[in-house]
């Protein structure tokens, strides 16, 4: 099931149906035989604009940098970057989400400005495919949220007026409604459901870390979807149609963890590995109404990370993915852990690339790894396609493109190699 993106937190990219694991944690893991996961087929939901562009298979080009230093790259599509420029009086300082400045569309091939919106704000957390959700209007006053097409600047109103609006991430974009989070002045984040007006908003959850869109699973009925939200060291379930809090907030004590699934969630104690490196937990499973189901014992290596990277599995597949650390958008196992370390699931080829799996292309043709010093692209056979020296940790995929987010050193977009 494909969907548009969640993101309230900076973690990776994009679709990222993946798990960030290093080789140091591989020894002695249960269930990691040579054939484990090689023929597995999963049913993930994933963030469509987070999969890596397949064009990187032909090589990488240059890092494109915005004309004005300090610009924020909010989205990229069709050779155009949507930027929030620094305020004219800021001395080139990177603007914040509560600032208002010009939002512009820049053609990356020649830096030509294609369109401009004044007194606006955005971040890459509001990117959804070929568009970005933008706050337009004064921060103190009547700001509205509009969906802006990156290549053309075409604008679609999505909300009525809001005071002190600061966007903080689109959760998901559905056919008739968009769910996102925003601040309205200092304090806790608000969840907004937008359909041209504000269909509903929820502010009662307290301190909100992030929310995942739980679609109900492969055979979901209309109305099954929920938001699974991490709040105040606890969690809550929210009805996506009404904004009603279905469950919670429930506290999480000590080392207790909640892991979201398409059709429910799991709760377990973090635990610690044995002297042999084995690490299993017994997790309680719950449906989207908070009803207790079965318990399951497994090694939660893959289960703790997919939701953080935009991919969720059904409950009955979470334990089966315990040794699988990379899944394609179509549900094919790409990368797994074995006694030898990391292997490509289909061929069994050992992967000797340092760092963790950051992203994959939609068909699994390209896998991207990030270490503290490099970005490495390999193909499905394990052949290195490109390797770039990079010490920048704040790298993510935005609509297929690899983007370094705005910071003191400046934002940039890694372009695929030009056609030969």
UniProtKB/TrEMBL annotation:
Keyword annotations from UniProtKB, A to Z: Signal
Q: Which residues form the signal peptide?
A: 1-27
- Tell me the protein's name: Uncharacterized protein
């Amino acid at each position: 099931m494909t969907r548009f993106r969640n993101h309230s937190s900076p973690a990776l990219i994009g679709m990222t149906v993946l798990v960030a694991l290093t080789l140091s944690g591989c020894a002695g893991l249960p269930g990691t035989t040579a054939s484990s996961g090689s023929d597995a087929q999963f049913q993930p939901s994933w963030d469509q604009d987070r999969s890596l562009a397949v064009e990187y298979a032909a090589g990488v080009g240059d890092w494109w940098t915005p004309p004005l230093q300090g610009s924020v790259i909010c989205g990229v599509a069709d050779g155009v970057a949507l930027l929030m420029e620094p305020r004219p009086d800021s001395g080139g300082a990177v603007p914040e989400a509560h600032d208002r400045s010009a939002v512009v569309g820049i053609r990356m091939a020649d830096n030509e400005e294609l369109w401009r919106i004044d007194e606006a704000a955005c971040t890459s957390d509001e990117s959804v495919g070929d568009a970005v959700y933008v706050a337009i209007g004064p921060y103190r006053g009547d700001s509205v949220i509009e969906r802006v097409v990156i290549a053309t600047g075409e604008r679609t109103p999505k909300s009525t007026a809001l005071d002190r609006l600061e966007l903080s991430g689109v959760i998901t974009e559905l056919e008739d409604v968009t769910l996102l989070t925003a601040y309205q002045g200092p304090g806790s984040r608000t969840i907004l459901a937008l359909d041209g007006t504000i269909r509903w908003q929820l502010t009662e959850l307290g301190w909100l870390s992030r929310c995942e869109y739980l679609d109900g699973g492969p055979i979901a009925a209309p109305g099954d979807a929920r938001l699974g939200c991490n709040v105040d060291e606890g969690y809550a379930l929210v009805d996506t149609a009404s904004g009603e809090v279905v469950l919670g907030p429930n506290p999480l004590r000590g080392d207790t963890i909640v892991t979201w699934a398409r059709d429910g969630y799991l709760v377990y104690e973090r635990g610690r590995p044995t002297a042999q490196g084995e690490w299993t937990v017994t997790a309680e499973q719950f449906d989207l109404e908070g009803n207790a189901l079965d318990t399951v014992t497994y090694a939660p290596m893959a289960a703790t990370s997919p939701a953080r990277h935009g991919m969720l599995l059904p409950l009955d597949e979470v334990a089966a993915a315990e040794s699988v650390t990379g899944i394609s958008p179509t549900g094919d196992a790409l990368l797994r852990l074995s006694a030898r370390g990391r292997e490509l699931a289909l061929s069994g080829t050992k992967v000797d690339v340092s760092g963790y799996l950051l992203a994959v292309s939609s068909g699994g043709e390209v896998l991207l790894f990030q270490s503290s010093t490099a970005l490495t692209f390999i193909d499905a056979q394990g052949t290195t396609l490109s390797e770039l020296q990079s010490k920048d940790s704040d790298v993510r995929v935005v609509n297929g493109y690899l983007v370094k987010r705005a910071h003191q050193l400046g934002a940039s977009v890694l372009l695929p190699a030009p056609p030969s």
